[in-house]
Amino acid sequence: MRISVPGAVAEIDLDSVDLFDPELYGSGDPHPIWQVMRERAPVHRQVLPDGRSFWSVTRHGDVNKVLRDHTRYTSRRGTLLSILGTDDPAGGLMMAASDPPTHTALHEPLAKALSARALSRWEPRIREVIRNLMAPLADGGPWDIGEAGAGFPMAFTGALMGLPEQDWPRLTRLTTMAIAPEDPEFQEGSGTLTAAHHELFEYFADHIRSQGDTPDDDLVGYLSTMEAAGRRLRQDEIVYNCYSLLLGANVTTPHAVASTVLALIEHPGEYRRLLADRSLLPTAVEEGLRWASPANHFMRYAVADVELGGVRIGRGDAVVAWLGSANRDERVFTDPYRFDVGRSPNRHVAFGFGPHYCIGAPLARIALRLLFDEILQHVAEFRLAGPVEHLKSNFVAGIKHMPVTATLRPDAAALPRLSVTTAR
Length: 424
Description:
By secondary structure, this protein is of the alpha+beta class. It is about 40% helix and about 10% strand. It has helices spanning about 20-25, 30-40, 60-70, 100-115, 115-120, 125-135, 145-150, 155-160, 170-180, 190-210, 220-225, 235-265, 270-275, 280-290, 325, 360-380; strands at about 45, 55, 75, 145, 225-230, 230, 295-300, 305-310, 310-315, 320, 380-385, 390, 400, 405-410. The strands form 5 sheets. A 5-stranded mixed β-sheet has the order 1-2-10-7-3. Strands 4-14-11 form a 3-stranded antiparallel β-sheet. Strands 5-6 form a two-stranded antiparallel sheet. β1 (about 45) and β2 (about 55) form a beta hairpin. It is globular. The protein starts with about 20 loop residues before the first helix and ends in a 16-residue tail after the last strand.
């Protein structure tokens, strides 16, 4: 999805726009549409040709209202447009597709296992992965940061979950198939989404069965032994939540990497500013997350008739909160279309908001902080070396290919000469 800088509010016929269409995000640009919606129709209904419909919510405040209030907007029926109009079979079983108290019972023990403190011991491994990932830059590139970044989260999330390394490339591809089933590069026959789900669920079921009665000391083993609401999880609950954790890891981090590097190329003064003052690294990471907004939307269903932004939403209606729009809301962000590595405050919702705030946010922040710390140590300047190709997906605002070259700093430590396996 291109990240443009709209000028004056454009003349756009909102009755003709199609925010459901994955092609809009693969080759088009939703930012002018969102800008018009925020100004003129912040709660807007779209009806698809097959009769299904959903409400789009585009202002930061309204997005927060929808995401934080499970009593009015439920996650149980499904949270992504890809399953609009059909109940999620994982509803009430998977943390992402449940409401409190079920959600709370799953979230609390997992949040402890995925806290920044618990994950700190993984930092040396993550830094090693990053240095291997950057190895092509040592030979002058080009380095496809979109393709390489796709495999980045699996190199530590796969280890954290105890998944065999030889399986990581296929699992990375399967999660991309699940979030971008219309993208030709990731299609495998007919029914890509169903096939990806089936293979991933079967993989985790087999992996859990292989552990038997003595689960390993890893995140999958933790799910197998932890208690939620006073009981152990059933196998289907473990499978669904393994899928959810893996999907979440492979959504945010790689696309935040590529989009942030592209922003630094397009705003070279901000990169020079960051090189001159590395204390800005934490705020630069947060600005990269706001800028990229990798998770493009989350969906809820109205539990009862509600009013939002002066508009009546009927019981059972689908409500889609567009995070990419909320993160450009002029009411919250000064000069929102300016990339600012020192932006503070930065109340972005790249990880969502409310009870479903991304449980993997601490891991993503650690990985991004370490990656850009290594980039600052090694890279004086990035340059594009080819076209930027965007993922065809209405859920993930992603970059699948972005070849770059780099001028390395003369004082940089040597990068390794071999790269980690990445997946396409």
